[in-house]
Amino acid sequence: MPGVLVLGIVITTMDAGIGLNMDFDRGTYDRIRSLPVWRPAAIAGRMAGDAVRYAFATVAPLLLGLALGFRPDGGFGGVLLALLYLQLLAFSVAWIWTLVGAIVRSHVAAQTMIVMLNTMVVFTSNVVAPSESMPGWLQAVISANPVTHATTMVRGLMHGTLTGEQATAGILACAVLIALFAPATVYFYYRRGRR
């Protein structure tokens, strides 16, 4: 169940980049730029609005899992912390897709690239299969993947087995994604808006 939640949230975040790209195509950015509003309002508003969608994308499958017999050993507190962490993960991963949405010109090309990259990110992690069952070279890729650290953290929180090292790796993975992709997204967003 924890892996399913991570998989679902990572897939859900793709809409952030696709939607931003479509905003450019529709002229939404031009309309916002002509108004006396904070310049990053379109990105900030999209990210804030997506938080509701991300919450639904985690709570609905969790409730279904509980109805089907999933019993988290981490208790209510562990599940609540896992859900909160999934919000942070969604915010972090969405920056990757918004960067692609800001750079790529066509929304069809952006969607294709985002889906392709998302598939590679998900399937080179420990969401679907344990990394120990993979060849050595792939284990190195899996251990560097932020989704691997996120999955390990969510599993640890829900099962009550989270270690300090796993928690640090999970939070650090989100911080690195934000630090790398948020400034780049804002830069290319402004740059595209000036064209």
TrEMBL record:
GO molecular function terms here?
A: ABC-type transporter activity
How is this protein situated with respect to the membrane? Multi-pass membrane protein
The keyword Cell membrane is assigned to this record: yes
Give the UniProt subcellular location, in the record's own words.
Cell membrane
Which part of the chain is the ABC-2 type transporter transmembrane domain?
A: 3-158
Q: A GO biological process this protein is involved in? A: response to antibiotic
Q: List membrane-spanning regions.
A: 6-24, 51-70, 76-96, 108-129, 167-190
UniProt keywords (A-Z) are: Antibiotic resistance, Cell membrane, Membrane, Transmembrane, Transmembrane helix
Which Gene Ontology cellular-component terms appear in the entry? ATP-binding cassette (ABC) transporter complex
Coiled-coil stretches are none
Please report a single Pfam family linked to this protein: ABC2_membrane
Q: Which PANTHER family match?
A: DOXORUBICIN RESISTANCE ABC TRANSPORTER PERMEASE PROTEIN DRRB, TRANSPORT PERMEASE YVFS-RELATED
Q: Which family does it belong to?
A: Belongs to the ABC-2 integral membrane protein family.
Q: What is this protein called?
A: ABC-2 type transporter transmembrane domain-containing protein
The major lineage groups are:
Bacteria, Bacillati, Actinomycetota, Actinomycetes, Micromonosporales
